[in-house]
């Protein structure tokens, strides 16, 4: 198809398609004349993926390029998942730092907590993993806010996260073609966090209604 | 304490504190003279919460005000959780719409899928819940991307989400004071999604390493 038809099919303006091409996010079409190129189904799929990453995933063009590079280089379920997981960040913003002494204390406590958790779960995770740093940052922020949670709470959530990861990998393993696999991995990583959070909210809503209906006023007397 | 000390303690500039006051995000200090006010521990906590909502939660000032209003009006675990959950959105961006016919088909399919899921889970959820619309939007986007998943996959994730919601509500029920409860609910809602996602990523990483070490090349032959 011509670029105008590619634009109609995907809803992406011609100028944006050309921009994505120049930025190296999308392979060239097959040249049919000096100023004409033929695009195929792979360009439609790639454009949809770029849209998802930049809108639903909230990624910059540079970050999108990193993810697409990882996708193109992946040759197995595991390496695709691993590469995409490392490339696609989990955003954790942190409050401006206040008292330096308290910050140092909070930092050490959060690091120890993550190390203890990884040991308790027997997780094979290098300390250089971006997810180790991400979780440490999230726990620092919880401590800054004096969030009330116990180490045992974290283990309970980690056990459920392990079950979720098992579902994720089983779904990924069902794919035969590494390219399709890698692209699905990007979709799953970009979209599964909001889906899971929405399922959790719906489940909370149900349990809130049942507990109110049951006359439990939430005073801790359940 | 004076406003200068409040600023030092929290790391929030005096100008920002005054801005939050004018925007109605924070109660006034106790007036001690025409131009002086005394601030207490409740202002320190409130400022930390505002910081978390606007940085880690990524909320606008207007959205932060809505959440704080809900927090101040909550009188029980359940109403605090419910109000905060409705006020604190789960962001779901959607791709620009392409073909109108396909969009209509995608929209109907996603709505039916959410209705079926809620029925299958026996969830008590009004159709006006923002989470119903949020999940429908997320599923529309998955369909636009031709994401490969089965209705059964969604139920499996929903079952785990139910367990997570149970942990959430048990933790909330452990609080006695509704004000502290409501504030903790905000913290948990704002911070627990990235924490859960990071735990899931760490668990995936562990399972990826184990499967690669086990020689499973991810061709679906597990």
UniProtKB/TrEMBL annotation, chains A, B:
Cross-referenced SUPFAM superfamilies: Putative DNA-binding domain
InterPro entries found in the cross-reference section: DNA-bd_dom_put_sf (IPR009061), MerR-type_HTH_dom (IPR000551), MerR_fam (IPR047057)
GO molecular function terms listed in the Swiss-Prot or TrEMBL record: DNA binding; DNA-binding transcription factor activity
Domain HTH merR-type: 1-70
Alphabetized UniProt keyword annotations: DNA-binding
PROSITE patterns, per the entry: HTH_MERR_2
Superkingdom to which the source organism belongs: Bacteria
Pfam families for this protein: MerR_1 (PF13411)
Protein name as it appears in the record: Transcriptional regulator
Species for this entry: Streptosporangium nondiastaticum
Source lineage: Bacteria, Bacillati, Actinomycetota, Actinomycetes, Streptosporangiales
């Amino acid at each position: 198809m011509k670029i105008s038809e590619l634009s109609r099919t995907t809803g992406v303006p011609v100028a944006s398609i050309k921009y994505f091409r120049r930025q190296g996010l999308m392979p060239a079409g097959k040249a049919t004349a000096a100023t004409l190129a033929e695009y195929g189904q792979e360009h439609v799929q790639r454009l949809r993926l770029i849209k998802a990453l930049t809108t639903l995933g909230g990624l910059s063009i540079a970050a999108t390029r990193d993810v697409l590079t990882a996708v193109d280089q992946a040759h197995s379920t595991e390496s695709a998942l691993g590469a995409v997981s490392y490339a696609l960040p989990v955003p954790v913003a942190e409050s401006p730092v206040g008292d330096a002494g308290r910050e140092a204390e909070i930092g050490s406590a959060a690091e120890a907590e993550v190390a203890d958790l990884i040991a308790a779960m027997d997780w094979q995770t290098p300390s250089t993993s971006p997810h180790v740093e991400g979780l440490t940052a999230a726990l620092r922020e919880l401590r800054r806010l004096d969030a009330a949670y116990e180490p045992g709470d974290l283990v309970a959530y980690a056990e459920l996260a392990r079950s979720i990861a098992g579902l994720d990998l089983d779904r990924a393993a069902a794919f035969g073609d590494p390219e399709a696999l890698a692209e699905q991995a990007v979709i799953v990583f970009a979209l599964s966090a909001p889906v899971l959070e929405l399922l959790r909210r719906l489940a909370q809503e149900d349990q809130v209604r049942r507990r109110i209906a049951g006359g439990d006023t939430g005073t801790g007397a359940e």
